[in-house]
Design a protein that fits this description.
about 90 residues; mainly alpha; single chain
Length: about 90
């Protein structure tokens, strides 16, 4: 039940907080740099859409979809979301 899940979560949180205190651990958010420059390159490409054919747009969409799936598989969801947004813009 939900109540049981909440109790388990609270118990685990209490244990984790005590462990952190005992070992002088201060939790911090994870900060990662983008692994590649593909997103910037794709954004630059999108600014030049006026000069490309619909076939080229279709190819860009396919490539972005591959990159998005790869990013999601690598659990890089922020990158995948940005790629998804680019795909949506291209489809408009």
């Amino acid at each position: 039940s939900v109540r049981n899940a909440v109790e388990i979560t609270e118990r685990r949180r209490k244990i984790q907080l005590q462990y952190n205190k005992d070992h002088d651990i201060i939790p911090r958010s994870v900060v990662r740099k983008l692994k590649d420059k593909k997103i910037k390159e794709n954004m630059d490409d999108m600014q030049e859409l006026d000069n490309i054919t619909s076939d080229e747009v279709d190819e860009m969409i396919k490539e972005l979809e591959k990159q998005m799936k790869k990013a999601a598989k690598e659990l890089d969801f922020e990158r995948a979301a940005k790629l998804r947004d680019q795909i949506i813009q291209l489809k408009e």
